[in-house]
């Protein structure tokens, strides 16, 4: 079997393994094997093929992988929609219990329930939005 086909097979196997693990390291090794397959197809001797694989693998794992991982783990910059309401203060308009009530969040009235179903929160209390469930805000009194 030609050496470039072996490198191409290794690249494919590493790519499949990357898809199963999602570590980014195996993807970099797959890319190194793919580059080496190109050099092998051009007729580079076997010892130099291993050198090319080693250099490309080291450079990609040491320099490219940290950038990719940092990009993937970057927290979402901004929350929007109902997710943006979680953690905001709300004003109780009508008594809120585990069964229901009304709160004002940023000028809009929302149906609400107490996050702790045993609580009864009187009107005029400032609460914090803990969660949004459908069109209902689950709230808890601020200390």
Describe this structure in words.
The chain is of the alpha+beta class and 143 residues long. The chain folds into two domains: 3-73, no CATH class; 81-141, OB fold (Dihydrolipoamide Acetyltransferase, E2P). Helices cover 45% and strands 22% of the residues. It has helices at residues 3-21, 25-41, 46-73, and strands at residues 89-94, 102-105, 108-114, 126-133, 136-141. It has a five-stranded mixed beta barrel. A hairpin with a 7-residue loop joins β1 (89-94) and β2. α1 (3-21) packs antiparallel against α2 (25-41) and α2 (25-41) runs antiparallel to α3 (46-73). The protein is rod-shaped and about 80 Å long. The N and C termini lie far apart (73 Å). The relative contact order is 0.11. The model has no long low-confidence stretch (mean pLDDT 91).
């Amino acid at each position: 079997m030609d050496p470039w086909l072996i490198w191409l097979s290794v690249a494919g196997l590493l790519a499949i393994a990357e898809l199963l693990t999602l570590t980014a390291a195996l993807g970099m090794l797959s890319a190194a094997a793919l580059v080496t397959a190109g050099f092998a197809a051009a007729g580079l001797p076997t010892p130099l093929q291993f050198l090319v694989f080693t250099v490309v693998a080291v450079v990609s794992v040491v320099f490219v992988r940290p950038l990719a991982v940092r990009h993937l783990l970057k927290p979402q910059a901004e929350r929007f929609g109902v997710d943006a309401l979680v953690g905001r203060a709300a004003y109780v308009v009508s008594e809120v219990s585990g069964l229901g009530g009304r709160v004002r969040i940023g000028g809009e009235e929302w149906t609400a329930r107490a996050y702790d179903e045993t609580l009864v929160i009187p009107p005029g209390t400032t609460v914090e939005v803990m969660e949004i469930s459908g069109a209902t805000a689950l709230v808890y009194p601020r200390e």
